[in-house]
Write a structure and sequence with these properties.
This protein is mostly helical and about 250 residues long. The chain has two domains: about 5-140, no CATH class; about 145-235. About 60% of the residues lie in helices and about 0% in strands. The chain is built from seven helices and two strands; from the N terminus they run αααααααββ. A two-stranded antiparallel ribbon has the order 1-2. Strand 1 and strand 2 (about 225) form a beta hairpin. The two termini are about 30 Å apart.
Amino acid sequence: MPTNYEHIGTALDELTIGLRPYLEQKLKKTFKDSWQKTALESFRDGRSRVTEDGQGIDWDAHSLLTVMWDQWNSVFRKHLGHQERSLVSELRAFRNRWAHQQSFDFDDSYRVMDSVRRLLEAIRAPNLEAVNHQKQDLLESYVAEQVNSQVQRTAFNRGKWWVIGIYSLCCAAITYHAATSGHNGSSALISFVILVFVYLIYQQFNMEPPLLFGPRECHRCKRIIYRKQCPYCEPQHAAPPMPAAT
């Protein structure tokens, strides 16, 4: 199962695929033959962003969003609104966090996916369906994990209270026997046993559910798995190379 970091990387890849043709089209329409020069002015390392053949720009999510932000008033304001400008600003912030390998939770991943979807929807990108599918897949994965965790927690708590009940019953029986037997010679031993049961009850009461995942059906491949990540689906999600910090 991909991590939240990987989900955001996938969303940024889809943003690059969908946004690049739109951005180049609008830049060419506005700046004609000087569109590449104008775009590269947004970067100190502009030359390094030119493709090997010198005929284009090696775009990524960072460069696309930067140029879109810098050229908003000159180019994109005519076609997009304030909401899309806010999406560009938000995605730039998330992309910078992602490039510096900061941690993300589900809410972050889902928000990035949704913001990418909204921006690509505004420009009528051809890969919008792929983003919608990834967003739905992310939500299904999260819900499945939450449901499984709740089931495991409920089963653990049920077993814990059974153990506490048995310990309590044994402790009560020993205490009753000690009070009614009248054998003073064994009182120290009985007291020790009672203290042991009290300690065990205390330990059970404070025990937290272990971070274990019992047998369940993988929501992707529908096979039975015994740990958090599905070993059958993992090969489909190779980890992306670490980005250079910006």
